[in-house]
């Protein structure tokens, strides 16, 4: 097997912005300035593909590209669409981006990409056993790992909890929408995490998303059996994780 490439272009596609940078795959760090483009509206496959091509051109990049995408992605095909146009469902995203850019593109779920970054370079590096990363934002994204191996597309934000889709009550957006105090919201997150503990008995839970910028406001109110860590790579996690998976796919790893 050939040695893994030492850099790749990572792109993180969101509902409001698309960010890209070249990643040093040895250090897990961005080696170019992160470039952000507003997500086109409507965010159809053709419109987003043009932005992906622009980002590749902006970085003068011709090597492997990884893209973190807000959807269930199986064999390169989007099976859902969160915060992007519903016309993505059923689209072969890998093939579309590869055709437009002329580069080898690997697409994965955005929470999975963030998890890959944290397991490779962040707080979950070298942690054995079951690791669960959760992104608390508009919804709840999840990434599950067993001894460093990703179990893709878990979508644990959609577990039913007390008769509700968990993310409708425990996502960061629920606190803002319902005017909850940090302590009130943290109590909901704690109940959700306790539910996950019963299902997976994790060795570590990593918490990311926008609220990870201010953990002192809410983390002290959450006490559970499983060790908790705040995600380390923050806004760069999707870019780094996508780049790692692109390199692995390019080299047959």
Describe the structure.
This protein has 253 residues and is an alpha/beta fold. The model has no long low-confidence stretch (mean pLDDT 95). The strands form four sheets. Strands 1, 2, 3, 4, 5 and 8 form a six-stranded mixed β-sheet that branches. A five-stranded mixed β-sheet has the order 11-10-9-14-15. Strands 6-7 form a two-stranded antiparallel ribbon. The chain contains seven helices and 15 strands. The chain has two domains: 7-112 and 236-250, Nucleotidyltransferase, domain 5; 126-231, Nucleotidyltransferase, domain 5 (2-Layer Sandwich). The chain is globular and about 50 Å long. The N and C termini lie close together (8 Å). Helices cover 32% and strands 25% of the residues. A hairpin with a 3-residue loop joins strand 9 and strand 10 (140-146).
Write a short abstract of this structure.
This protein has 253 residues and is an alpha/beta fold.
Largest sheet: 6 strands, mixed
What's the number of extended β-strand segments?
15
Domain module tally: 2
Q: Which class of secondary structure composition applies to the elements?
A: alpha/beta
Instruction: Report the CATH superfamily of the largest domain.
Output: ATPase, nucleotide binding domain
- The CATH architecture of the largest domain can be given as 2-Layer Sandwich
**Strand residue percentage:** 25-35%
Low-pLDDT parts are none
Cα radius of gyration in angstroms: 18 Å
CATH class of the largest domain, anyone? Alpha Beta
